[in-house]
Predict the structure.
Amino acid sequence: MSIYSDWSAQAKRSREQYPPGTRIELLGMEDPFSPIAPGTRGTVDHVDDAGQLHMRWDNGRTLAVIPGEDSFRKLTEEEIAEEQKQETEQENNENMDEDDSAPVMSM
């Protein structure tokens, strides 16, 4: 089997397991130059032809993870729901702060 066949098979598996929008948490990365910190969460943007998951990390970085080399896990539905709940609460708090800072006119 050629390396292209290996990559093609890995890419197919990765695309099935991690479609765009999948949320993951990084457990460890073997990149010596600019690793993402363990515990960082992100969203799969796409899977390339070598099976690497190209990510939009929550810290603003973009760096692919390599299945079999980097360690990561998919977030559970419960964890995703909790993230969404926290985002909504944060947005509500920010909106309330904006309302409090507006000038009040009286007659």
Q: What stands out?
A: The mean pLDDT is 88. The longest helix spans residues 77-101.
